[in-house]
Amino acid sequence: MTAADVDAGATAPLSEAGNPIGFGRMLRKEDARFLRGQGHYIDDIQLPGMLHGAILRSPLAHARIVSIDTTAAEALPGVRAVITGATLETLGLAWMPTLSNDVQAVLATDKVRFQGQEVAFVVADDRYAARDALELIDVEYDPLAPVIDARRALDEGAPVIRDDVEGKADNHIFDWESGDAARCDEVFASADVVVAQDMLYPRSHPAPLETCGSVAHMDKVTGKLTAWITSQAPHAHRTVYALVAGLPEHKIQVISPDIGGGFGNKVPIYPGYVLAVVGSIVTGKPVKWVEDRSENLMSTGFARDYHMHGEIAATRDGEILGLRVDVIADHGAFNASANPTKYPAGFFNIFTGSYDLRAAHCKVTGVYSNKAPGGVAYACSFRITEAVYLVERIVDVLADELGIDPAELRMRNLLRPEQFPYTTQTGWEYDSGEYPRALRLALDLAGYDELRREQAAKRERGELMGIGLSFFTEGVGAGPRKHMDILGLGMADGCELRVHPTGKAVVRLSVQTQGQGHETTFAQIVSSQLGIPPEDIEVVHGDTDQTPFGLGTYGSRSTPVSGAAAAVVAQRVRDKARIVAAAALECSPDDLEWEHGRWFVKGDPTQGRTIQEIAMLSHSALELPEGVEGHLDASAVYNPPNLTYPFGAYVCVVDVDPGTGQVRVRRFVAVDDCGPRINPMIVEGQIHGGLAEGVGMALMQAIAFDEDGNCLGGSFMDYLLPTSMECPAWELGATVTPSPHHPLGVKGVGESATVGSPAAVVNAVIDALEPFGVRHADMPLTPAQVWLAMQGRPARTDLATT
Amino acid sequence: MQVTMTVNGDEVTRDVEPRLLLVHFVRDHLGLTGTHWGCDTSNCGACVLWMDGEPVKSCTVLAAMAHGRTLRTVEDLDRGGELDPVQQGFMQCHGLQCGFCTPGMLMTARHLLDDVPDPSELQIREAISGQICRCTGYENIVHAVRWAAEHPGGSAGADADAMSESSPATAGQADSDQEVPA
Description:
The structure holds 2 protein chains of 2 kinds.
Chain A: H1 3-11, H2 31-35, E1 51-57, E2 63-69, H3 71-75, E3 79-84, H4 85-91, E4 95-97, E5 103-105, E6 111-112, E7 118-124, H5 127-135, E8 138-143, E9 172-179, H6 181-190, E10 193-201, E11 213-219, E12 224-229, H7 234-245, E13 252-255, H8 271-283, E14 287-290, H9 293-299, E15 302-303, E16 306-314, E17 320-330, E18 359-367, E19 374-375, H10 384-402, H11 406-413, E20 422-423, E21 429-430, H12 435-446, H13 448-460, E22 464-473, E23 485-486, E24 489-490, E25 493-499, E26 505-509, H14 518-530, E27 537-540, H15 558-585, E28 592-594, E29 598-601, E30 604-610, H16 611-618, E31 632-638, E32 647-656, E33 663-673, H17 680-699, E34 730-734, H18 752-768, H19 783-790
Parallel strand pairs in A: 1-14, 12-13, 15-19, 17-18, 26-27, 33-34
Antiparallel strand pairs in A: 1-7, 2-6, 2-8, 3-7, 4-5, 9-18, 10-16, 11-12, 11-14, 16-17, 20-21, 22-32, 23-24, 25-26, 25-31, 28-29, 29-30, 32-33
Helix pairs in contact in A: 10-18, 14-15, 15-16, 17-18
Chain B: E1 2-7, E2 10-15, H1 22-29, E3 48-51, E4 54-57, E5 70-72, H2 85-92, H3 102-115, H4 121-127, H5 139-150, H6 158-164, E6 170-172
Parallel strand pairs in B: 1-5
Antiparallel strand pairs in B: 1-2, 3-4, 3-5
């Protein structure tokens, strides 16, 4: 990238409509329809003759299916089809591959393996009749002992969940190691101080406000399947459909309509999507299936569930030397994590964080349990949430051990700007960073020293106030594709740009917005490179028939990958425009200079052509040089050379009620560095949202289970999400460290705050509880959990505590 | 059973099952899909519309209970094609992302401002506390409602205003060649 690109971000001129021609604050194009109630979400789709599907789910966590009687359901008026696992077996569709090379039951045939698992599918004239029919299906179960505690999943004699897999005699999925264990042993053996801490990142759920759903229409005449799906990755979904169902890929059109929030929940392929297709094949009609909230919380992709044991080694004066971690990863009943193939624990081995260590090692063991499948979701950047939480929590434990202020300890150990590009002990190459600058800004904005003085005064009065920090390094924008693929599909993204004769443009993306504002941001990216006002650029996305192939939106990869593709394709159009302009001006392309949407003759700015004029010329009778085709368009596939590494420093201030354990987040200061900001308003919005998620995870949200495997977070009455009353007014700051390898210097930001904030909140609460000698308590820090921690016996939050 | 009600100024009559939820009636029978459904348990507020001038969560109201009543949904919020000030405020202050909670938030916000034209931040937070937004962290929704309070007649030049009004401040550290985009 060049300095000019950064300057363009800071000083973009305004279009006649008042929008920045390039980077800058711009109101969102997509708002016009959402504000009028004219968004078009999955449940808004109505097709002629459309039927409605509903899924019967298992009430038990682990049981053998003895029999299923659908007679009464089939006899109910309005019911068009009742589909069971036996029906699917005849079609070869009873099982489907997961994104982690496991298989998952579409409908259970032999056993049910978690509460909420799909058992039968009813298609009926309307959604009420379909639900009525579910009540009439008689399933006889033979209950089995469930595996609920992940830490006991590998015990001798534990019930074997996956007896569908030939020869499987335990609940083990994988072991994965990273780093140098021997070197770690040496460093730890010679260290002044070693502290250890067990910590749980509990099972959570993204809970987008719109649940998952699909409308499938198999046209028997054309043989074409059109599937509207709540999908963050429509192209990947289409290819998987082709591979799974044997449908020809050119006869599948996947359309992602407006998506009511995703957060990773809409990456996997769920049985319901497949069942809608089967329902359409069986009935010959379009079939809509939209899950309800309990189905969403109990059966679709959960997040986290990492049981971690961390150890950190340091010198007595606070130089951090090494870090090692052992993890038990609860993946549920099927291994359906959406990871790049070579990374069964995602990018967890970025757990060395933002510090310069001499040695690091981690070992992750994946296990099955009788819980819903998933694991990689909820704005986690492929498990970097867990990694950041681990390192930022244990650094605070170390600070407590050493009696060093946590801010001071971090400042002493942060990577220095001159160390970049920096290769971590586990092999990640951080592209750029100015970490101390960001931390200093956060501490200044928070008034850190004054806060500590206030805290000291309050402690003397018996009031509990806590100040928590976290410093995170994110890694977003997967690929490169030689290292990263999902089911063999390399993680690169295409982009196509066409400039119409009148100078208006259409850009086609492979990624899919779920609220991130792509229709605005990507128009700004193209605008920044071509000088066409963003209001004159239409962004097309979410339809596999209309857009080039790519892996979709998750892991904060849209801007790092697809955004780069959009920049590259616009630069190609600009290069072509130069040739056309040169032909029109009867000069050499080398004689031309570019500025603000115009090629002009060097030294004579009056001789030039605007991009709009060039667009018309490129479609005109103008004679072009040999080998130069007419029109003004280009395509590109962007294969990123590396991830981008945004980072940030967060400070959280909480007050804890000593009588009830209630935590109030009083302030939250977030300094984020994601490179230049294409649209600062949208970036700030992304950060706000992620901070709220972090408060929710730290204080409220967890999917726990009782000993029978009953899900205790199956509705919004049980699974508590933060409201306006739990969230403070966010205080944001920014530093700008461009990525050296991204064409625009930008880095992803969508998940930064979700990754970085939980540790800050927890660190603040634990800091508040310092008078009680509390060194750690697991999330969520509900009033009950805080109160128990104050009594010196914090609970396990993954199991029922009643 | 037959129900008759006034919806967005028009009288409608339909035959419905007694158990039909109002949210499904409005969406599936009247085609007014701006009102969303999100949770079934009155927790999320995506389904908020007005019944006889009061915001209700239409996922826990039966269509039959709306018989003889007057409903207003988000589709009726604009004024002859011009956005209501709360709609403008949400756009100006980036009070929405995925848009799914937005109709419910708008209906609650309009009701608040009709009752309390100049609400404090806390009053706004309390007003929307029965509704969930998963994207915005609520702050820009609060700003959006305040914007509407400060622009009761809306703003014909809203777009121009937007460029001059700063977003919630982001503090930055500016280097010579690395300005924080404003």
